[in-house]
Amino acid sequence: MPDWSISLFRIARIRLAVHVTFFLLLGYIAWEGWHASPEARWLGLTWSVTYTLLAFACVVLHELGHAFAARRFGINVSRILLLPIGGMAEFDRIPREPRQEIIIALAGPAVNFLLINLLLLLVTLPATMDEFLSFDLTFESLARHLLFMNAAMGCFNLVPVFPMDGGRVLRALLAKRFPYPLATFWAATVGKLFALAAIGFALTTMIITRNWVQGTLLATLFAFIFWAGENEYRHVKAEERFN
Ligand SMILES: [Zn+2]
């Protein structure tokens, strides 16, 4: 079955692939950049596309963090897939050892916090948040936006919503006290409830602000989290039956 993705190249024996919908996002970003500043259309387009590509490079580094940590425990990542909603490292198995799962889960956000420290060397921090995220077509503004994006990504992934990184830490902590399927059930239930609330919030905000693209992306992201949590729980249950 075609999975609508295009393989780009390998990094440290891991295949990097992009889903075709990623190019739709890039097209939209280019269009937005073109219209952002009527006096500097080409610069706006270049800035927006460069920012998006660098932001996704940070996503790849986050996923590589997981992959390298997993490799230490003999777990392979065959592919990192980039989607408009983020990246996904495809592990050949998920460790049942809580300590291993925690280390692998935390290695991703750790990369974002490392990148924040590197970016802090490049920017001077302004006094207000408005100034911080002000959009001007400079390298400094690009670095500031990347800094903000890494902070948001690092923190968002630590929210205990399974199967995001924080949710994996939650499952691993629960698995220290409870049987693995039960720990997965509770982590997935918390994750699914959060995902449902977030879908409702994203759709309501989308209707109020009429920001259709961002609203659709957010709702899709949380629908994906809901689906992935349910899917992984089913997988654990099925594994249990065979053992
Ligand atoms: Zn992650």
From TrEMBL:
Membrane-related topology note: Multi-pass membrane protein
GO CC annotation terms, alphabetical: membrane
Membrane-crossing segments per the record: 12-31, 51-70, 102-122, 142-162, 183-206, 212-229
Record's keyword terms, sorted: Hydrolase, Membrane, Metal-binding, Metalloprotease, Protease, Transmembrane, Transmembrane helix, Zinc
Domain Peptidase M50: 55-123, 137-195
Principal location: membrane
GO BP annotations, alphabetical order: proteolysis
Subcellular location field: Membrane
InterPro entries referenced in this protein's UniProt entry, alphabetically: Peptidase_M50 (IPR008915)
Pfam families, per database record: Peptidase_M50 (PF02163)
Molecular functions (GO terms): metal ion binding; metallopeptidase activity
Cofactor: Zn(2+)
Top-rank taxon: Bacteria
PANTHER family referenced in this protein's UniProt entry, alphabetically: MEMBRANE-ASSOCIATED ZINC METALLOPROTEASE M50B, STAGE IV SPORULATION PROTEIN FB
Family: Belongs to the peptidase M50B family.
The protein's name: Peptidase M50 domain-containing protein
UniProt lineage: Bacteria, Pseudomonadati, Verrucomicrobiota, Opitutia, Opitutales
